[in-house]
Amino acid sequence: MVPIPAPPGGKPFWMSKTEVTWDAYDVFAFKLDMTEEQRAKGVDAASRPSNPYGAPDRGMGHQGYPAVSLTYKGAEEFCRWLSAKTGKKYRLPTEAEWEHAARAGAASAASIPSKELATVAWHWDNADDKTHPVGKLKPNAWGLHDMLGNAGEWCTGKDGKPVLRGGTFADKADDVHAGARALQTPDWNVTDPQNPKSKWWLSDGPFAGFRIIREN
Question: How far is 2 from 40, CA to CA, in rounded Å?
Fold first, then answer.
């Protein structure tokens, strides 16, 4: 976790240095913190993800890679689980907090020149159409890796609704910047054969991940 100075009108907080990886999310999603007996009895089943349809990493990579194909609910419930496990308050960032951290003191959220962007973000031009292990590119001025590109990051929007921030590995350079935002559409889950669609996994959203905040 990296300490982040207070945004205007807010409080300082801690933010994960990278996007949450499969190494951490697997423990929550697949109940690796529980005994075989607890798993067999379905303990805590209501607040854990259902089995995904296919491989949620879409074959892009697992250990050390950002956890993706996740709904906002999947990210939010991870925070609740981690808070209960540790006794500390973890949550998703608000849009204002996320952009404050992504800008890292910059005066605006303007796009970064493409040559410079390639040193800090995986995007359409350098990602080879997939996510990459976290923390391999340069961090921003506050020590945060992959704030832009790689996996887009779930935040709580200004209206309280989910929004994906920062752009992704699938976006062109002009669409990867601290002001980039996207709202979920039905296309993100179109091939999910379940009815109703999964509340936890996005069958067609391999670009959706998250990072977390710990309150001071």
Answer: 38
Q: How many CA atoms lie within 13 A of 68 on its CB side?
A: 30
CATH classification at residue 180: 3.90.1580.10
Under DSSP, the state recorded for 25 is: H
Does residue 201 contact residue 78 with C-beta atoms inside 8 Å?
Answer: no
SS (H, E, C) 91-120: ECCEHHHHHHHHHCCCCCCCCCCHHHHCCC
Give me the residues paired with residue 163 across strands: 155
Q: What is the pLDDT of residues 45-60, one digit of tens each?
A: 668 898 887 888 999 9
Provide CB contacts within 8 A for 113, sequence distance 6+: none
Nearest to 20, CA basis, from 76, 102, 86: 76
Per-residue pLDDT tens for 92-107?
999 999 999 999 988 7
Alpha carbon distance 10, 4 (integer Å): 11
Structure tokens at 205: 């959203």
pTM of the entire predicted model: 0.93
Could you give the number of structural domains in the chain? Answer: 1
Query: Worst-scoring range by mean pLDDT, 5-14, 49-58, 157-166?
Result: 49-58
Provide the residue range defining the domain that includes 113: 2-215
Which is nearest to 127 in space by CA: 148, 153, 105? 148
